[in-house]
Amino acid sequence: MSLVNVLNVIVKQAKTPFMAPISFDIYFESVKALKHSLTWRIVYIGQAGDDQLDQILEEAEMDCDVAGRMTFTLEGNFPDVSKLPPNEIVGVTAILLTCSYNTNQEFFRVGYYVNNAYSEEFPDLIENPPMQPDIQ
């Protein structure tokens, strides 16, 4: 039996500009008070197959001193574009939401596909994307 059960995760805004924060409402329960803290992370996958390019957008540690249901909002910044290969900025990637017990015992991971694309407001960029992505 698990001591922590994630009940629901809601992406606050499913469609945002690249440079906007990403937020999750997280609902979970702790069956009993925990001896160690929980560490929640939002991770941006920089390139499939190379986890060295992954970026932690937010990390929050919380104690669960009492049993019961809890909810909170975890908000992360956008990825640092200078750390991403230019050919990996536009296109499909993923964001992971993870939770670990005692810093390193990951017990929860959910992934969300992300499609970084130029806005329909800029049809020229969609039809003829620049070699170096234009992010503003």
From TrEMBL:
GO molecular function terms noted in the UniProt entry: histone binding
GO cellular component: chromatin; nucleus
Keywords: Chaperone, Nucleus, Transcription, Transcription regulation
Subcellular location: Nucleus
Listed InterPro entries: ASF1-like (IPR006818), ASF1-like_sf (IPR036747)
A Pfam family matched in the record: ASF1_hist_chap
GO biological process: DNA replication-dependent chromatin assembly
Chain segments annotated as coiled-coil in the UniProt record: none
PANTHER family: ANTI-SILENCING PROTEIN 1 (PTHR12040), HISTONE CHAPERONE ASF1 (PTHR12040:SF0)
Family: Belongs to the ASF1 family.
Protein name as annotated: Anti-silencing function protein 1
Origin species: Strombidium inclinatum
